[in-house]
Specification:
Distance between the termini: 102 Å
Helix content: over 70%
Order of helices and strands: HHHH
Shape: elongated
Structural class: mainly alpha
Number of strands: 0
Strand content: under 5%
Radius of gyration: 35 Å
Largest sheet: none
């Protein structure tokens, strides 16, 4: 029995799913590789930062004993490099890539919450609200 068009249409979605899975797997592998690279860079920066802090402390104690101009210059260089490393390490923690997904989740669910709130407000406002019955004036109140 030859394969029908119906059988062929079933094969295409499974191929599309496999292709989509392969793409997702490749994306996960790229993300993992990027994460490993960032981790190695952060470790190197932290090691350099620790070494520079030790050198800075040593130079500060030496400067207290005898003021040498080359040590002051080196101390300034060390401090500027430490500032760079601190900025680099902090910027590694907060990148747009790491904040992109939570940002869009907030936008998505915050927007959904607003839409639901508006819907409920309009639904409540469309319901007729009971009006207090007004008491018709009596003949005795007209005479006063």
């Amino acid at each position: 029995m030859p394969p029908s068009d119906h059988d062929h249409s079933k094969a295409e979605p499974s191929e599309a799913k496999e292709l989509n899975f392969d793409q997702e797997l490749a994306e996960v592998e790229r993300s993992l590789h990027s994460l490993k690279e960032r981790y190695v860079q952060i470790e190197r920066d932290q090691q350099e930062q620790a070494q520079l802090q030790q050198r800075r402390e040593y130079l500060q104690t030496e400067l207290e004993q005898s003021a040498q101009p080359e040590w002051k210059a080196e101390l300034k260089q060390i401090q500027s490099r430490l500032d760079e490393l601190e900025f680099h390490l902090e910027s590694r923690l907060f990148t747009w890539g790491s904040l992109k997904e939570p940002f869009w989740q907030i936008v998505r669910f915050g927007g959904l919450g607003m839409v639901l709130g508006w819907f409920l407000a309009f639904a409540v406002l469309k319901q007729p609200q009971p009006q207090p019955e007004s008491i018709p004036p009596t003949s005795s109140s007209r005479q006063l």
